[in-house]
Design goal:
Blueprint: H1 3-12, E1 24-29, E2 33-37, H2 53-60, E3 79-84, H3 94-100, E4 110-112, E5 124-127, H4 135-139
Parallel strand pairs: 1-5
Antiparallel strand pairs: 1-2, 3-4, 3-5
Length: 141
């Protein structure tokens, strides 16, 4: 394991899942925004695991998915529902499961967007719960 890999694991607190193998579309609901994810451009931003839903979405607009901890798996504010393509996403880590247990309205398709890394086998559709919006922050835009 290289020193760079060790640093990334320390930062994200879990081993990094493999990046997507091919291009795919990520649709964010209820906004209806569509992101074309290209593996060679990962990481897109600086929030969440490289290639995660949060990484892709926050590169365009950091206000679309709330992420109080900055995407380092230390809260549950980036909770999403994966409505399509859940099977193409990495497995949940024990750390992610611990934080998911703290989120309201937990469902079988719940994930933290900072941890959810699709592999590119299919397009992915995620929904940000309306109750998970920071109204004060959004009203200031």
């Amino acid at each position: 394991m290289t020193e760079e890999t060790r640093k990334k694991i320390r930062k994200y607190r879990v081993p990094l899942p493999p990046p997507p193998k091919r291009k795919f579309k990520l649709t964010l609901l209820p906004e209806g925004k569509i992101f074309d994810v290209e593996p060679q451009k990962i990481p897109y931003g600086r929030h969440g695991l490289p290639g995660s839903v949060l990484d892709v979405v926050s590169s365009a607009d950091s206000g679309l998915i709330e992420h109080t901890c900055g995407g380092v798996q230390a809260c549950s504010t980036c909770h999403i529902y994966v409505e399509q393509g859940l099977g193409s996403c990495n497995e949940t880590s024990e750390r992610e499961e611990d934080y998911l247990e703290q989120t309201p309205a937990l469902q079988l398709n719940s994930r933290l967007s900072c941890c959810c890394v699709p592999n590119g086998d299919e397009d992915v559709v995620v929904r940000v719960p309306l109750w998970n919006k920071n109204e004060v922050k959004e009203a200031s835009h």
